[in-house]
Amino acid sequence: MKTRGTPVPTGLPDITAPDAEASAWLVHFASGRHDPAKEQAFAAWLDASPDHRAAFRRASQLWDGIAEIDGIEHMLAGQDTVRIPRQQRTPSRRGLLLGGLAASLACAAGTGLLLLGPSASDPVSFSTARGEIRTFTLTDGSKITLGGASRVEGLFSDAARDLRLVNGNAYFDIARDERRPLSVNAGRVRVRVLGTRFDIRKRTGQVSVAVEHGHVRVMADAAARDLRAGERIVSDAALPLGEVGTFDADRVFSWRTGRLSFVDAPLRDIVADMNQYSDLPVRLAPGAPAEMRLTLSFPVGQIGQVLAGLDAAYPLDVRESDTEIVIFASR
After folding, report:
1. Cβ atoms of residues 165 and 198 within 8 Å
2. Confidence bin at 27 (pLDDT 50/70/90)
3. CA atoms within 13 A on the CB side of 220
4. The pLDDT of residue 86
5. CB 263 within 8 A of CB 270
6. CA 128 to chain centre
7. pLDDT band of 78, cuts 50, 70, 90
8. Which of 74, 120, 121 has its CA nearest to residue 96?
9. pLDDT tens for residues 167-192?
């Protein structure tokens, strides 16, 4: 008789509710049964929590081993485990079990409902083309929105979430996981979070970090700053980490809706951001007023009109060829 408070040794690891549910889903898919309603329910369950995704991965990894156990097909079917002699060569149990599982999961994927994504140990690699703004969902439920001509790489494992902003800019909406802090490297700047929303923009010689929600630690060389919601910091060649300041969220995050906004910004920064969306490369000619300060706001699809307006309103000479747009200082 078991009494309350008396541990009962089972020899089995602790099983959480998500683990049990994940195992039930895996057994269902291994049966090979095609049930659209079940697939929709599975997709909803998988998308409901990062814990569900992690549990399903653990169950999938366990499956590789369990498929080799003698008589497992009878156990799963609720039958006895007596081995039945086979008179002719048949596919292996592992092949049958994994084949059924693969077919069922492929069916779920085919209907666009399989949301699991790559395994936790797989590399992360997202990129956008020039002019493209796109949101990607990671395996832990975090989301990354990339601006035009941007790229993020990295690796998610059971112990850490490490990313690198290779070029461009990105908005991070990170699922909280105290066991696996997330870090983003951008040049010599490193950002470390447990779970929050923030934006990183990487230009030549400059990296800026702006926090929309929560707490972020920013490090560069030996310097470190803690940023909270509404705060922004810039790292450049002159100063690893500048002063922490506030920012206009509507302006800084407007790129996510396809609009570039600048307040008293140098022309070189405006040109850098235009190049993420312009059909033709835009560059400053030697001697062009790269430090000229401007306040502008325009849709990313109207860069040509904006450059024409700058040519008319400021001491600039904007020339377009078949291959590029060059901004000169007017004579």
Report:
1. no
2. low
3. 21
4. 41
5. no
6. 12
7. very low
8. 74
9. 999 999 999 998 999 999 999 999 99
| pTM summary value | 0.64
Chain CA centroid to CA 125, Å: 8
Give residue-wise pLDDT tens across range 288-311.
Answer: 999 999 999 999 999 999 999 999
Cα gap 329→331, rounded to integer Å: 6
- Judging by beta carbons within 10 Å of its beta carbon (0-12, 13-18, 19+), is residue 183 exposed, middle or buried? middle
Q: How many residues does the chain have?
A: 331
Q: How far is CA 56 from CA 17, 63, 73, 139, 204, in A?
A: 12, 10, 20, 11, 42
Q: Name the helix (H) or strand (E) containing 104.
A: helix 93-110
Whose tokens are 């039930």? That residue is 24
Partners of 328 in the β-ladder: 317
Of 39, 111, 99, 90, whose CA–CA distance to 67 is shortest? 99
What is the percentage of the chain residues whose pLDDT exceeds 70? Answer: 70
Paired tokens of 110: 């085919």
Both tokens of 313, joined, read 């309103």
> For position 1, what pLDDT does the model report?
41
Where b means 16+ CB within 10 Å and e means fewer, 103-126 reads ebbebbeeeebbbbbeebeeebeb
Stretch among 19-28, 115-124, 235-244, 281-290 having the lowest mean pLDDT? 115-124
Phi, psi of 90 (to 5 degrees): -130, 165
CA distance 41 to 24: 12
Q: Which pairing describes strands 245-246 and 293-299: parallel, antiparallel, or unpaired?
A: unpaired
